[in-house]
Amino acid sequence: MAHFDTEYQRLEASYSDSPPGEENLLMHVPEGAKSQWHHIENLDLFFQRVYNLHQKNGFTCMLLGEIFELVQLLFVVGFTVFLANCVDYDILFANKFVNHTDSSKVTLPDAFLPVDVCSARIRENAFVIFVLIISGVFWLHRLVKFIYNVCCYWEIRSFYINALKMTMSELPYATWQEVQARIVEIQKEHQICIHKKELTELDIYHRILRFKNYMVAMVNKSLLPVRFRLPGLGESVFYTRGLKYNFELIFFWGPGSLFENEWSLKSEYKRGGNRLELADKLASRILWIGIANLLLCPVILVWQILYAFFSYTEVIKREPGSLGARCWSLYGRCYLRHFNELDHELMSRLSKGYKPASKYMNCFLSPLLTVVAKNVAFFAGSLLAVLIALTIYDEDVLSVEHVLSSITLLGVCITVCRSFIPDKHMVFCPEQLLRVILAHIHYMPDHWQGNAHRYETRDQFSQLFQYKAVFILEELISPVVTPIILIFCLRRKSLEIIDFFRNFTVEVIGVGDTCSFAQMDIRQHGHPAWMSAGKTEASIYQQAEDGKTELSLMHFAITNPQWQPPQETTHFISQLKERVHREATSDTHPLSLSESEPRSLIANLLVGPSTLTSIHFGGDSSLTNHAAAGSSDGASALRSLSPISSSLHLRGSLSAAHRAPGHTSTMSKAMAGSGTDARTVSSGSSVWEGQLTSLVLSEYASTEMSIHALYMHELHKQQSRGELSRHTWHRQDSDESSDSIPDEVRSEPNPHSRHFPRSHTFPTTVPSPSAIPTSASAISGTTFGQEGASSHSSSQQRYSGSTTDSFSAGGQVVRSARGVPMGGWAEDGQAAPRHHDTLPEESSEDDMPPHIHKIT
After folding, report:
1. What's the mean pLDDT in 598-622?
2. Which of 150, 287, 343, 458 has the most Cβ atoms closer than 10 angstroms to its Cβ?
3. 289, 242 contact by CB (below 8 A)
4. Which helix (H) or strand (E) element contains residue 613?
5. d(C-alpha 513, C-alpha 506), whole Å
6. CB 715, CB 777: distance < 8 Å
7. What values do phi and psi take at 87, rounded to 5?
8. Is-contact 381 414, C-beta < 8 A?
9. Where residue 810 falls among pLDDT bands split at 50, 70, 90?
């Protein structure tokens, strides 16, 4: 294992999440007072089932869905075997004559082979027998799992009815925040968790999203091998459901995984002394799982093809242009996901950003393809018009061979051509569209801003927002590519993975081992360039990239206004909200982009609906409708200087607005466009009145988060212009190898490229931003700007050294790594060698007990 190297260091414990005096608390309840829900052993699985039952709209809907999945599996396998072995296609295609005594017409049953012939053909085909055996075993496994889940979810149904006092008929119209509030409340009565007197919203999120937070963190730190540089294709991303399944199998719940149960990392992975042996063991597991994927590749590939055929053929026939539509890629969902963000919250954000994202991608239609598509559509339309006219004149034309097929193909051709013809009323405004997208997705690499009109930016955004056809194609080839990635790419990152889980795992009392990034602790994982200057002690590799910690913290605080964070975190949230409110109400706007644009987008968003219309927010109801509803009171409605006062202030504003005449229709329109629990709209007047406040509150929370995300990105951009005169980020060009080191670390930075920030997740070289001003005078008088200028360099711990390459006789690169961290940090005008903290000897912790960082 000598070829493994790492840059990870041990992470100190984070802040306390328990009320004072409740550390190591174990609640004792008399035997007679215990309820059915007292001390649930596996709270992770319990809360996940509670959440799943809510998202699936109750027990009956979930049960029917599971039954139809079992039937669907039987149908796909059985129908495919029948088509391959029990149909005489010569009769079906009229290549064989059939004698009939009573009729001259050929019927469909005439093409079916007799049962004995069909069964004999199946028995003679070894591959079909193998597929049937594998499918049967898999179906029986699904059946046993279904029966087990029915029993478990029946218990969850009882929990909703008896403990939460919610019937299954009410569940589809209740928001998750209401369900979560009741769970927090019944903790005092039922003590479902005996390690803490009170549950917090963060505790519940941690248990539901424990493993997903790890995956988000690994993608954020570019630890997973999902980005590749392919010959002729350039930078590409490959991340499919099959690959994701294998990652989770290896890390979390498979045989020999890193976790011994749902909530605890194995003790040996918490020590640093045996890291090389553990990395070797993990590499061996990855190899065997990759080989298993390779052996099962034919079966999985056949299943993927058949499932895609039965799933998408009808859709393509009905809507041929659906393959030209786009969807958020699996990688995009993971990259854009906040820490501690549930599935429905993520999909609500991405759904709101779908229309502006589609408009942005449509701005880059090729003029050459447009000309060709118009003419091809004209010729195909002419032929189709003639065939349709002849069919109307005499329907016997349809009986002519290939006429019906020609009509179908011509219709598909016209539909495909239309997808390459832009709307004649479309206005080319990529920068404004990209900002509208940012308001919803909250994350964007630095080098995209100001370069929205470039094809490089468009190609990188297409990695997040891909064609549906590309998504289907990637899933089809996933059984072939997945074992290659596991064997040749993931294995080389074994040591980094081991160190990642050791360094970024903390134990929270009452929750278990969680990803430290999910604590959203500014001090441990904040980034100085994202308003955390002077508040963070994180080194380069401890910092979350792209402002993930700060944005996740704001999103969680706004989504859960009753959550009471620690004092340091509360100060950060309050200070940021005060600044946003001050920018909204002041006459001057220091975040102006240039002299020609005196008002920033954040200011426009907060001022009123007139400016929103000018930047194409019209298609996004969550921002436009609420800005119109709030009008001049929008700024005061978003004051919310603390998590609790936010909820109280909005409730008061909404109750007063609800009594105002003419306001109901405006809010109804706003909620009709909401992606968050908008199911209440059709539930009847009584339920509608009961859910009105919560729905509007969720929309205000979504709008408030969009405003804060835009503000933080704007301030980050302004601060980066000043800070980049002193520092330069360097990112890896590819994640194909764990020991890949960027070329910039080995040499003096390019004087033209060093003034431009590169995103960790999109490490692409961009043109020289010589036209971008480097002055930070626009924010020199603000609080965060002063803190960033004074304490940015002092708050960094530089663990990195340089890495030199030498080529051996065999052509292999021999690297001499001196502790270069992920995203190495290079000072302008300085040589490669640096002083850094020394690593402990590998055997120094062998004789010591596991160092578990506890957060109470």
Report:
1. 41
2. 458
3. no
4. helix 609-614
5. 5
6. no
7. -125, 130
8. yes
9. very low
Q: Order of strands across the sheet with 505-508?
A: 512-515, 505-508, 854-855
Distances in Å between the Cα of 348 and the Cα atoms of 48, 351, 506 are: 19, 5, 30
Which amino acid is located at 548 in the chain? K
The number of C-alpha atoms within 13 Å of 532 and in the hemisphere containing its C-beta is 30
Q: In Å, how far are 813, 839, 847 from 844, measured between CA atoms?
A: 31, 10, 7
CA dist 385 and 383 (Å) reads 5
Task: Give yes or no for a contact between 573 and 553, defined as CB atoms under 8 angstroms apart.
Answer: yes
Alpha-carbon distances of 97 from 113, 134, 400, rounded to whole Å: 15, 38, 19
pTM value > 0.85: no
Cβ–Cβ < 8 Å for 536, 527: yes
Q: Tokens 């004149």 — which residue? A: 393
Give CA–CA dist 556/520, Å, rounded. Answer: 9
DSSP string, 1-57: -TT------PPPP----SPTT-TT------GGG--TTSS-S-HHHHHHHHHHHHHTT
Contact 282, 329 (CB under 8 A): no
Residue located via tokens 């119209």: 173
Beta strands in 214-340 (DSSP E): 227-230, 234-237, 259-261, 264-265, 326-328
**DSSP of 704-763:** HHHHHHHHHHHHHHHHHHHHTTTEEE---S--S-TT---HHHHSPPPTTTTTS---SSS-
**What is the C-alpha end-to-end distance of the chain, expressed in Å?**
37
Check residue 587 and give its pLDDT: 52
Length of the chain: 856
**What is the DSSP pairing of strand 465-467 with strand 234-237?**
unpaired
pLDDT tens for 232-289 read 888 899 999 999 999 999 999 888 899 998 889 999 999 888 999 999 999 999 999 9
Average pLDDT of 335-357?
Answer: 95
Q: Where are the beta strands (DSSP E) in 279-390?
A: 326-328
The per-residue pLDDT for range 628-684, each reduced to its tens digit, is: 333 333 333 333 333 333 333 443 444 444 444 344 334 333 433 333 443 333 334
Q: Are 387 and 409 in contact (CB under 8 A)?
A: no
The closest alpha carbon to 221, from 773, 704, 738, 698, belongs to 738
CA distance to 348, 437, 584, 635, 696, per residue, from 699 (Å): 10, 17, 19, 15, 5
- Residue 614 to residue 634: CA distance in whole angstroms: 18
Alpha carbon 373 to its chain centroid, in Å, reads 35
Q: How far apart are the C-alpha atoms of 450 and 461, rounded to whole Å?
A: 14
**For 332, what's the count of Cα atoms within 13 Å in the CB-facing half-sphere?**
24
Among the residue ranges 114-118, 730-734, 796-800, the one predicted with the least confidence is: 796-800
H helix or E strand, kind and range, residue 825: strand 825-827
Residue 556 near residue 338, CB atoms below 8 Å = yes
Residue whose pair of structure tokens reads 């193909």 in the numeric block = 409
The total of other beta-carbon atoms located within 10 Å of residue 167's CB is: 12
